[in-house]
Design a protein that fits this description.
heterodimer; A: mainly beta; Immunoglobulin-like; 2 domains; 6-stranded antiparallel β-sheet; 5-stranded antiparallel β-sheet; 1 helix; B: 34% helix
């Protein structure tokens, strides 16, 4: 009987200790039943200029929820930046204060008023210089074949701006224009010019984008390096709207590419502007100064559409 | 004699029309270099950087366009199509070795006035 009561006491003591320990180590968050917003989706980016990146996304489906408070954007990669609060309903945001050539990671989360955050939609991107004028502070132009002015363009000249060049300087061309038959813009090596010196840079062009009014609307969800590039020409006469495309070029002796986006203006029903003999196309260029940086390396979007508990 | 007079008349009209055409717009650019009036005065042409030329123009130094060299050089005072003096615009091109201007040339009291329609590096 004594033994039994000893066993009973020991059992009760052990049971008490077990219960007591379990109670003190319980984390309330382990059983969190607070509602959590759905993540924003389709996060995309484009470079606005050498210090800014524009982000665009599809709103969280939780925006209609009464608890919805807005979005939180975290930027990592360069100097430490405080999280940025973005209002409900906003679908784009321009992040300023960045540095060209540095790959930043942008993580966007939806937020509820109970402080709960959604999973993050993330993308990597880098700002790039935007050139609307050439080294003479004038429009960036490439002239028709018959013109006395240059039919080629060096995207990034010695003055760190685009330069229009004549055929004699063909070795420096990144892009060229031939109007012998049609309005042919493309890789210098693909054009029918007798260059004084053969183009040394290799230029490869990706698919043409239409239906945009500026490079600010040319968003990507993947690194430019993921596009399909080829040495080729584009017949502008096949288009009746502004066009844009990504390109990459590699200087002779270099192993890595420089990436850029080019926008060609379609004005008053034509790409060619000006008086006959000196007609020209006008371009806007977004150029990544740092070799080997394809603007972006995309991570898979971390998103959850059914995570309200 | 009558025939000679008619031929002279026709020749005179031809020459006048040809001269008028010379004052009209040409598709072919006039090729040359942007220089400052100060350099022109001392006859020594410096090599400009874009920034230095712009700063000089901002101080009030006029920039003009010089086609040809030596005794054959022609100096043009360049104006924008709206009638304003294009000195500051020219200064932006002073660092280029060769510049082309498309426009209309008028000779007024021996001075070449060039109404610029298009300017670019050559």
């Amino acid at each position: 009987m004594k033994k039994l009561s000893l066993y009973l006491t020991a059992f009760l003591f052990a049971a008490f200790m077990f219960w007591a320990c379990e109670d003190t180590t319980t984390n309330p968050d382990d059983n969190n039943t607070k509602p959590k917003p759905n993540a924003p989706t389709q996060l995309m980016a484009t470079s606005k200029d050498s210090t800014s990146v524009i982000l665009k996304w599809t709103s969280s489906t939780s925006e209609t929820d009464a608890l919805f408070a807005g979005y939180v954007l975290k930027v990592t990669g360069g100097n430490t930046m405080a999280p940025i609060a973005i209002a409900k309903g906003q679908k784009t945001y321009t992040v300023a204060g960045l540095e060209e050539g540095i790959e930043y990671t942008f993580s966007l989360q939806a937020k509820f008023t109970n402080e709960e955050l959604s999973d993050a939609a993330t993308i990597k991107w880098s700002p790039a210089s935007r050139f609307e004028t050439n080294e003479n502070d004038a429009d960036i132009r490439i002239y028709e074949t018959a013109s006395s002015f240059g039919s080629g363009l060096q995207l990034y000249g010695t003055n760190k701006k685009p330069v229009t060049l004549k055929v004699a300087d063909g070795s420096k061309w990144t892009l060229g224009l031939s109007t012998k038959t049609g309005i042919i813009l493309g890789s210098p090596k693909e054009l029918d010019y007798n260059y004084g010196s053969t183009p040394t840079a290799a230029t490869e062009i990706a698919d043409v984008i239409t239906g945009i009014n500026s490079l600010d609307e040319f968003f990507d969800s993947q690194a430019l390096s993921s596009k399909t590039f080829a040495s080729k020409t584009i017949d502008l006469s096949k288009y009746n709207t502004n066009i844009a495309f990504a390109l990459r070029y590699k200087q002779a002796g270099k192993t890595e590419w420089n990436y850029a986006k080019v926008f060609i203006k379609y004005v008053s029903g034509n790409f060619l502007q000006g008086a006959s003999g000196n007609r020209y196309i006008t371009l806007i260029v977004s150029h990544q100064e740092k070799t080997g940086v394809p603007y972006a390396i995309t991570r898979e979007l971390e998103q959850s559409n059914n995570n309200i508990k | 004699m009558k025939k000679v007079l008619i031929l002279m008349l026709i020749f005179g009209i031809f020459v006048s029309v040809t001269n008028l055409d010379a004052q009209k717009k040409s598709n072919k650019p006039i090729e040359g270099k942007v220089v400052s009036m100060n350099d022109l005065a001392i006859g020594s042409f410096q090599t400009w950087t874009k920034e230095a030329a712009e700063a000089e123009a901002a101080k009030g130094t006029p920039f003009v366009f010089m086609s040809g060299t030596g005794k054959k050089a022609q100096i043009y005072f360049v104006y924008n199509e709206d009638g304003t003096f294009a000195s500051k615009k020219l200064a932006k091109y002073a660092h280029n070795a060769k510049v082309g201007i498309v426009g209309t040339v008028k000779k007024i009291n021996g001075i070449n006035i060039l109404i610029m329609e298009l300017i670019d590096t050559m």
